[in-house]
Design a protein that fits this description.
The complex is a heterotrimer.
Chain A lengths: L22 H8 L20 E10 L2 E11 L4 E5 L6 H8 L7 E6 L2 E3 L4 H6 L2 E4 L11 H6 L12 H15 L14 H14 L4 E5 L7 H16 L3 E6 L2 H7 L2 E6 L2 E7 L5 H9 L17 E12 L2 E12 L3 E5 L6 H8 L7 E6 L2 E3 L4 H6 L2 E4 L3 H5 L6 H6 L9 E2 L2 E2 L1 H14 L16 H13 L5 E5 L7 H16 L3 E6 L2 H7 L2 E6 L2 E7 L5 H8 L7
Parallel strand pairs in A: 3-8, 3-9, 6-7, 7-8, 13-20, 13-21, 16-19, 19-20
Antiparallel strand pairs in A: 1-2, 1-4, 4-5, 9-10, 11-12, 11-14, 14-15, 17-18, 21-22
Helix pairs in contact in A: 5-6, 9-18, 15-16
Chain B lengths: L5 H26 L7 H18 L3 H25 L4 H24 L24 H5 L4 H19 L1 H11 L1 H6 L4 H28 L10 H11 L4 H21 L7 H21 L7 H23 L7 H19 L19
Chain C lengths: L2 H35 L4 H13 L2 H26 L7 H18 L7 H28 L3 H21 L33 H18 L1 H11 L1 H6 L4 H26 L13 H11 L7 H22 L5 H24 L5 H12 L9
Classes of the chains: A alpha/beta, B mainly alpha, C mainly alpha.
Chain lengths: 549, 364, 374
Amino acid sequence: MRPPQQSCPARSSSPLPLLVVNTEYAKAVLGSDAPRGASEPEPVADREPLLRLTDITKTFPGVVANRDVNLELYTGEILGLLGENGAGKSTLMNIVTGLLRPDGGSIEVNGEAIQMRNTQDARRLGIGMVHQHFMLVPTMTVAENVALGMSARRPPLSDVQRIADELRDVSARYGLHVDPDATVESLSVGERQRAEILRLLKHRAKVLIFDEPTSVLTPQEWIELSHVFRDLAAEGRGIIFITHKLDELLGIADRCTVMRDGEVVGTIPAAGADRQTLATMMVGREVVLRVKRPRVPAREIALEVRGVSLERGGRTLLDNVSFSVHQAEVLGIVGVDGNGQSELVQLLTGLVSASEGAILILGDERHNLTPREFIDLGGAVIPEDRHERGVALDLDLRDNLMMADFATSEYSARGVLKTSAIMSRCDRLIEQYDIRAPNSNVRVDQLSGGNQQKTVLAREMDRGPALLIAAQPTRGLDVGAVEFVYQQINEHKRNGGATLLISTELDEAFTLSDRIGVMFDGRLLRILDADEATVDEVGLLMAGEEISA
Amino acid sequence: MGVFDATWVAAMLAAATPLLLAGMGELISQRAGVINVGLEGMMLFGAFFAYWSATEVDSIWLAIFVGVVAGIALASVMAFFSINTNADQIVVGIGILILSIGVTSWAFRDLFEGRSQLIVDPMDRLEIPGYESIPFFGEALLRHRPSVYIAFALLPVVWVILYRTTWGLAIRAAGDLPDATETAGLSPRRIRWAAILTAGAMSGLAGAFLSVGEVGIFLNRMTAGRGFLALAAVIFGMWRVSGLLWACLLFGGAAALQRRLQGLPDLPREVWVFIALVAAAALAYLVIRRRVDWRNPFTLVTIVGLVSIGMAAIVLSIVEPSISLPSELWIAMPFVLTIAALAIMGPRSAAPRYLAVPLVREHD
Amino acid sequence: MNTLASSRFASSRLLGPVVSILAVILGLAISFALIALNGQPPGEAARALFDGAFGSKKQTAATIARALPLVLVALGWIVAFSARRINVGLEGQMIVGGITGTCIALYLPGVPTGLHLVLALIVGIAGGAVYAGIAAGLWAWRGVNEIVSTLLMNFIALQLLSWVVRGPMKAPGVRSNRSGTIPDSAQWSNLIAQSPLNIDVFMVVGLALLVAWMLRYTTFGMRLRVTGANEHAARASGIRTVSVGLTALMVSGGLAGLGGAGLVLGGETEVMAEGFASSFGLEGIVVALLALNSPRATIPAALLLASLHQGGGLMEARLGVPAELTLVTQGIVLLFVTGSAAIVRRARTVRVDLDEVDSDRSQASLGPTAQVTT
């Protein structure tokens, strides 16, 4: 019943792919909603969309996650949802699946306006989602996971056996090979994803949403998955898949909706779509240079990374990454979150060990580091999640400022802290870094995000480090704090320090960096000179498109 | 068989009964992610309130029912504080423990002290007809109080609940990945509430069987650490029903043995053999089921230790010296074994991932 | 400096102690309500409670004497908790400390007074520390949850004590199960004659202040608190969090061990018998939580709980109210304090957004066209 295996998924120009479909089975599974059938293609515009979102708006304190979003999904189509982090895709999908309630706008399924109150409503309406982080209980079998929350025929006895048998049928039908009686923890990542899809199918989902499905798959597994998408769409279901990778998007989607900063930039058909256009839609914006980048002549190499790879759990998180950062230089690394940047930072700061490769900090070659060694070699880091790694929320400002240096001879003697030296340092830092707090005794969780970040900055920069690693340093900060951070980085550069800037914000990278590198899928694709690089080029790289040199 | 005669087997089963009952409830609770340090307190509640009712009404089963309800009542306090206020489960458990000792001791002394001892007729042993005719097993298995049969009968029921019902799915998911329950449309908080109340009911039952079913009177702190033994049994049994059974039999057997040995001057030979057998069983279990990692130094130490214990025990059984092991060793043994088992399991523990983790809601 | 913001911030810091006091009031209120429901006069009960604790000089001395081991146990909890290690095995560590200390007291004859006591106490501390160290080591090297191991080790220690006073350390020729009499050279001398209050009151108060000072003003204390507040950040700052946790647990055990040794060596009975540490382990944890994990506050909190205990005795003698009612009070207090903790934490996290006040100043320096040359 399935089309023969091809090396790349067929993409036809008609709205519905021409496939042979087992209409009887489809009727049984989908109920009376038999697919329109390949024999009756209709123009897209005349049909009622399976799912329509109109003017969806959702605001969180301080940020508009979705603003007047309009989106349509038709039966039998695969819609790609393209955007960077923070574009609002996840929030939108959480609304569609009932996890969040929109502040404004409406949702229609098959033309009928509906009220989505919770996840059960969504499930009843036939909307299901495969999250990026699977919602599978590791110690239970696939069948048990699917049975979770489903009403049984003879309660309280569960129908796991019957569900397992049904799953086997569905599994064979779509070629989603996974043993329903296997425990999830024994499955590979690809198999787990298949289990999630089976769950959606068992719940008779008509709208299937996939959040970054390929981040965990091998290329071969992706090809198989794309076949599954085609089959599911052919039956009359609708598929939305969220991604930031152009290659995959164009390989499978019928249409593409691009989101940026909470709004829909546009929706275009995938056939014949220009990649550059899409990339620019995804990232493009005017880069406003508010802070002038100081030009300092290049010097020796402060940090060198040679062929570093990181494997964990069978997955390659970093793939042969090599680069160097010079003194008095800012190297900015951009890319959509989750392409290895976090792991790179953890590696460089000594929190994880590399599987292969070497790191040289100021000429000191190491295969692995401890955090203390990183600090002693002259490193400083602004972590990307200040609440998780940057500040200790329950401690006061003074403790947070002193966290890394309290044991040095300057601030302690024979185990006893030198209070006056510490106090004067804290006062100086508060003044120098403009940390708005009544005194140094205030608990850090009472400070605003900007001041918390300033605390981290103060602590790290006061050491006079040779190498600064700044990971998403302005995330969640107000304008004033952002400016401050930029000034500090430039100051550090003028003093001869090297900076490795990791950022998802392109304008930030362009504002501060001398050179810009792009990470994608654990690889460092290219390093461009910031003066010559264009946003378009970088956007393409971020979406996985290798551009010619 | 010496010491390990039918009487001993019967005593083992009887001693295992309260552990099994409270342990089954606690197993359900821990699989859902809640640890009940106050389990002993719920048992005490059951014991006292069952006794109190028994002095007022004539029906022993009604009194036991009251004991169960009392356990549920105390459990609801635990559930409220640990789920609805998100307080630390351990600390709340300590509070429950102190509270229960206070309430039961105060109420008992207030109501019953000074009066002539009101002893209630405990449950009679069922003497299943024909027990005399079956050698050994008749005496060992067929002459127990109903509480024993109920406890062992509930065991497969609990197994079915955990592994064959929708409730069991929800419980296991709540302990290992509460987010999955929310995605499936369930409420992990409600699941935990139900699990804690179950633990309360079953430990209340265990306590009631103890005071009303066995002894006939309530005594201050009469549960004497059984609640904690049940807790240890759940952990030693690696959070599985079959494991719980073995743990309770082992702990109960040790308790019965300890009482038996109190009268004897020397440790009889068969006890040494028993020790050797247990060491051998543990060794076999580790090697066969756990696929030993020979490079790990800790595992090597454990293997060597077990082998030496086994060999020493065999030697001692042949020599049969005139020494006796202190009874305190037998009483402490379950706790030592549980910690040893945890140490051997190491970081790859089978504990529910979200055990003792409060459910904090991030959005809305 | 915005004084309005400072005062808003200051008031949120008072919330904790207010909750503790409210908890005690609630606990007492419910207890007295129970007494009244029982047909006994609550007012007289309250008076008996007070008299039992502070009625006479001797009673006050007894109350203070009881508070001292509670303070030590509470300090033990606090030190471990600073590094986010939960030590529920304090009672077991007390027992082991008591046993080892008593060994030195009994079996090291001919040591001059004073030195004998000091040696015994040191060994008591070591005993508690090592006993806690077993659980700590299992945590550090085998990932065994220290809550479970310390909890179960309590019972092992109880059996150890039982064996010891019936066997190896049993006083010869005496029917009851107890150790030999502790020689005077190893005892705390009385502060007030013929009372249980010894000069160890100064040591304990000193230790409470020492622990408070240690947490705030030493590098070790810094390591503890940073590890406890945010393990990731601590590790990133170069702190070796596993050794910190291990040390914290052992110090905790040492404090409990000191308490145990002090109970035996300073007690009125001058012997070690079964149950000498009973209920101190749990009550000490209540003290620590009531004191909101502040070392200095353990002194008033311990006095409060000790007075409950002592007062309960008199309440029973005078009115026939069973003294165990004070346990009910304790339980309610503990539940209320810990239940409110979440609310207190949320209230304290109200962002004092001082940036709002000064934002007009910062905005002026920006502007789409301004190019801030740095």
